[in-house]
Amino acid sequence: MYMCMFVLNDPDRLDEILEAWNAAGISGATILESTGSYRYRANLSKLHMRFLPEAHQLMSDQFNYTLFVLVRERAQVDACLQVIEQVIGDLNNPDTGVFAAWPLEVIEGVSSGAVKEGS
Fold first, then answer.
1. Residue 9: inside a domain, yes or no?
2. Residue 81 is part of a domain; what is its CATH number?
3. Would 85 be classed as within a structural domain?
4. Of 12, 29, 97, 109, which sits with the fewest C-beta atoms within 10 Å of its C-beta?
5. CB-count burial class (<10 Å; 0-12, 13-18, 19+) for 53
6. What is the pTM of this model?
7. For 3-60, what is each residue's pLDDT tens digit?
């Protein structure tokens, strides 16, 4: 079993990624709104100059989505990445995203049917 993580820089592309993963048989992603430390620090000085409700709006416009998905096989990890790059393009280009995957040694709380064979 593997955990795949993808930080999507452009929140408007989320549905495209999820639909493409689903078409590839990859489902069950957990989605979090996130902000990187560089973006946070770049906007921190702007926050100090604004009234709090406006500052909240400023920060809410500066988020990414971080997606986590469990897959059973290494081939599915490769499929996750391939689908992402088909939708987003080369992740080595700026302002696209970051992908990482790692094998899991211990996993609890996931039923045997939650991560399907071949998906």
1. yes
2. 3.30.70.120
3. yes
4. 109
5. exposed
6. 0.79
7. 999 999 999 999 999 999 999 999 999 999 988 776 666 666 665 555 555 554 554 5
